[in-house]
Structures are given as structure tokens and as C-alpha cells.
Amino acid sequence: YNLASVQSRLNQWDDAALNYRRSAMLAPEHAPSHYNLARCYHYLGQISESQASLERACQLNPDLDNPPAWQ
């Protein structure tokens, strides 16, 4: 998760997505992994994958029902 966070800050979306996927597989109840994976997919133009990851994050953490818009 930490490596993916650094990669996303560096706009290395492919690498970050790979590591957020790994994080989500290792800790499937970790909402931030799913949320940040959704962000990566969004920036990679993978909209359906982004939506699925965001929906999972919102299931795990209802406070994410209205996440901020990504720029």
C-alpha cells in the first residue's frame, strides 16, 4: 500500500494500480486500497474498473458514498 501511495503521488498510475490491487488482495476489507485503486483506474481511463473499485470501497466504508471529485 505504501509503495502504491508513493507511485500515485508520482503519477505512475500503472505501477500504483498494480500495487493497490496487490494490497486489496492481501487485505480485502481495506477500503483505502479499493478507493485508491479506483483513482488509478480513473486516471488510466479504465472507467468500468474504476467504478467497480469505488463501489467496493463505499461498501466497506459508507463515509465514501460521496467521494471528492478527482482532478
Structural features, described:
- It is a single chain.
- The protein is mostly helical and 71 residues long.
- The chain has 4 helices and no strands.
- α1 runs antiparallel to α2 (13-26), α2 packs antiparallel against α3 and α3 (31-43) runs antiparallel to α4 (47-60).
- The mean pLDDT is 92.
Short description:
Helices cover 69% and strands 0% of the residues.
Main sheet makeup: none
Distance between the termini: 22 Å
| Strand coverage percent | under 5%
Radius of gyration (CA) equals: 11 Å
Overall spatial form: globular
Helical residues, percent? 55-70%
Give the secondary structure arrangement, pairings included.
Blueprint: H1 2-9, H2 13-26, H3 31-43, H4 47-60
Helix pairs in contact: 1-2, 2-3, 3-4
Which labels suit this protein?
globular, 71 residues, mainly alpha, 4 helices
